[in-house]
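Appendix B. Extra example for self-study. Work through it before the problem class; the solution is given directly after the inputs so you can check yourself.
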Amino acid sequence: MIPVCRLEDLPRGESARVGTTPPVAVFHTDDGELYAIDDTCTHQDASLSDGWLEGCLVECPLHAASFDLRTGQPTCLPARRAVRTHRVTVDDGVIHVHLVAREGTAA
Amino acid sequence: MRTVTVVGASLSGLYAARELRAQGFDGRLVIVGDEPHHPYDRPPLSKDFLTGRADEDRLALTDAEDAGALDAEWLLGVRAGALDPRARAVVLADGRTVTCDGVVIATGASARRLPGPAPAGVHTLRTLDDARALRAELTRGARRVVVIGGGFIGAETASSCVALGHRVTVVEAAPLPLLPQLGAELATVCAALHRRGGADLITGTGVGALRGTAAVTGVKLTDGRVLDADVVVVGIGAAPNTAWLTGSTLALRDGVLCDDGCATALPQVVAVGDVARVGGIRAEHWTSATEQPRAAVANLLAGRTTHHARSLPYFWSDQYGSRVQFAGRRLDGDTVRIVEGGLDDGAPGADGLLAVCERDGRTTAVLSVDRPRPFTRMRRELARQDDETERERREGQAAALSVPHRRATL
Ligand SMILES: Cc1cc2nc3c(=O)[nH]c(=O)nc-3n(C[C@H](O)[C@H](O)[C@H](O)COP(=O)(O)OP(=O)(O)OC[C@H]3O[C@@H](n4cnc5c(N)ncnc54)[C@H](O)[C@@H]3O)c2cc1C
Ligand code: FES
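Solution. Structure tokens for the complete assembly:
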């Protein structure tokens, strides 16, 4: 469980990048939901926390692949693989991400 | 429409094939490509592929599942030699003929070369085979590399060569690299990336001749200087691959002339990507090659132009550890304003830079170095403005057209 920032420091429509390995992106949607996904786009090399947030979708800032924050699935090319999603909680006003174990390798 | 042939098996050809299936074309789909390879992505060739950070697997644009879903006949390693509209046929260089009722021209562009013979050690960088050959030379120990041309591919190649530990000089004939694309102020900023990154940049002098007979030994400049070199990379732009269309009746002028829906003057022939001059502009960018096929295919299937290709130019480039992004249409005389970050000894500072070009109080273009987030916002805003102006223009046109029509029905 990794603390990100205070909830009030991440307004709706904003995102934060967590410098874990690999890095994680946390989004606060306009509807007030919090989501966390792996920050690095599965297409090439761009940071999704820099992307364009619209509803539950984030568009990659490099080649505009779009990912569904709820599932991590890309909704259009050029990305073809999903990003991992992570659980987010707010404890005492602080946003936390709970990293899922990396697939294949023992975590 | 029963058979469609896509000529050119690269980025825009593949996207066109996908659009054909996505838009409901269930006939015979033939894809002709003169390279032996399945479609691969070119941008990494001068970046992560050259430095060895990405291997060939990472370049592939399709996998078996994706290719299977296309249900296409791939004719790879064979060039289309002619388009015969009267016979409704694409004639292949090996003598075969593909009869079809729709054609997507996606033959891209080829690297320009210097006139005369090229001794060993002289490279261009457009194809996977080019990149393999250059990479093989660059992994053979430290070398002196001269890059001819300071455009984006030249700059990326120079940057990758520096990263591999080579001594690199970039020669640019114009007073500044990227001058036509960026204008003097922004071109100066990008030129400074070379200096900051550790490459020499020589501007305002052309290349007179290559030295060396069997293998290159140097580059003689038009000002008389000679640069010693073991490797020379010629990055002087690309010419659209239209030679095979000579005699097809299509209008060819630095590309295949198309309306703004990628349709040519021939019904059932559309063109996309680097080879297409769409509504007066030939963009040599990855994003246009992936966006144009949607409109092109819709128009091909409809038999007339009902869709217009999106047109806000966008490109990115990775150099010396920085990501450069540019969007919009800059014109000479635009004012440049730095809105975020700043300059450090002429180059973008450590935290990047965001600069806008403005005309009559409106933003025309935006350049970003390592500032993807505000760049994306501005790029979207520019695209929105663009769509709006476009819609107004079309509505204006439609209104103008509807006047005589209404009169006629009175
Ligand atoms: C090294 C490099 C780096 C780049 N980096 C960037 C970047 O950072 N950002 C960016 O926006 N863009 C970049 N680009 C540009 C981008 O790759 C092109 O815009 C894109 O590849 C265009 O796709 P296309 O399918 O239209 O043409 P191409 O990719 O040129 O493909 C055309 C294909 O058609 C084949 N062909 C040609 N003639 C025939 C024929 N007669 N019969 C059959 N096949 C034929 C060609 O061999 C080729 O395989 C880069 C390009 C290169 C070369
Ligand atoms: S890096 Fe994200 S779409 Fe290409």
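Self-check: The pocket of flavin-adenine dinucleotide (ligand 1) is lined by residues B 7-13, 32-35, 42-43, 45-46, 79-80, 106-109, 125-126, 153, 241, 244, 273-275, 284-287, 289, 315-317 (CB under 6 Å). If your reasoning did not lead you there, revisit section 3.
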